[in-house]
């Protein structure tokens, strides 16, 4: 009867935690594609951008490493959860003892002998988590996993934002090169006509040299644009993890400028930022660690038991007399540890205070980033509107000079100067438009990678 009770007792301890383990596994799989937030990037109405971002998702090594770090920490959570479960092990022994006759118990001397021993026990050990210490350690590990998941999300937001910014800067550089070539062509015509004026004595040598210097300056600027273009292409190739990739991109005239983005946000927006959520999870994690450190002062209780076979002759190995059963509870407590536990508790408290300070600092930095991004967006949009007006005025001036040239009241050189001035302002208009687009990307990043048009939704 006692044997049956012990067997049922061991089986109960083994099965019950296993059911809990299965319950822990029923969690929804993480969909990292959501971190890419394609719905937001599609608002720029640029198929080349979204297709490149999909390639980024499939190929980028930083994103792959971020996913691996999440998987690593998921395994660490499982390893920690395993400490809440009983352990079962089989440690068999087959030995032959050769004992001399010198062994003696009082007046009784045991003669020399030799014998085999067949020992096959299944050993079970389980620490009763009375104080919830192991459960707290598992909760701490889960919060660490949450920190890594938010770090992965931050990597997605940072990489996609940086990629998109470089992508639009490349479009800007392409347009700059086109305008720069037109400027150089115009300046070459100006130099040619100034050369004619100098040849006929209608201008000084200084005027001619000034126009020639301007031409070299424009060519130098074109070389810088070519360098910037190549640098941006190589940078985008690194993002795509392909050194030979063709960076397909849109034309400048087809670039869509996002307008109507809300100009005021609630500070609750920062709760979507990965760094804010990381700090929140870190506070919870260290809070669990503090509780664990307190429970280290309490005693531990370990249930142990064995069931198996123990025989000295092979033919009696499976007889009832060779059956082995034992079970018990092992309490333990450290009476003296040299102050280690007290030091550990104080350490965890200091870490908790440090985490609180980091949390407060993150809130301030998040609000600063959001306000700075909002100011940058408003300024960029205002500058773009002013530049568009200036471009219209410059275009009117250019058309007016062309009309005057038609009736003979302005020279062809005046038309070239007007065209050059128009192209200069056009470059500024291109720069301001792309800067406005990049400011929306910066604001998106500052807001934690959420749709800026829905940022004031209550259920965001």
Description:
It is a single chain. The chain is α+β, with helices and mostly antiparallel strands. The chain has one domain (2-97, 112-454): Outer membrane efflux proteins (OEP). The protein has 10 helices and 7 strands. The protein has helices at 2-25, 33-36, 38-41, 47-59, 61-82, 133-199, 205-240, 274-295, 340-407, 412-446; strands spanning 87-90, 93-99, 104-105, 108-109, 113-128, 300-311, 323-332. The strands form 2 sheets. Strands 1, 2, 5, 6 and 7 form a 5-stranded antiparallel β-sheet that branches. A two-stranded antiparallel ribbon has the order 3-4. A hairpin with a 2-residue loop joins strand 3 and strand 4. The longest helix is centred in the C-terminal third of the chain and has 68 residues, at 340-407. The relative contact order is 0.13. The model is unreliable at 1-30 (pLDDT under 50).
List keywords for this structure.
single chain; 460 residues; alpha+beta; Outer membrane efflux proteins (OEP); two-stranded antiparallel sheet; 7 strands; disordered N terminus
Layout of secondary structure:
Layout: H1 2-25, H2 33-36, H3 38-41, H4 47-59, H5 61-82, E1 87-90, E2 93-99, E3 104-105, E4 108-109, E5 113-128, H6 133-199, H7 205-240, H8 274-295, E6 300-311, E7 323-332, H9 340-407, H10 412-446
Helix pairs in contact: 5-6, 6-7, 6-8, 6-10, 8-9, 9-10
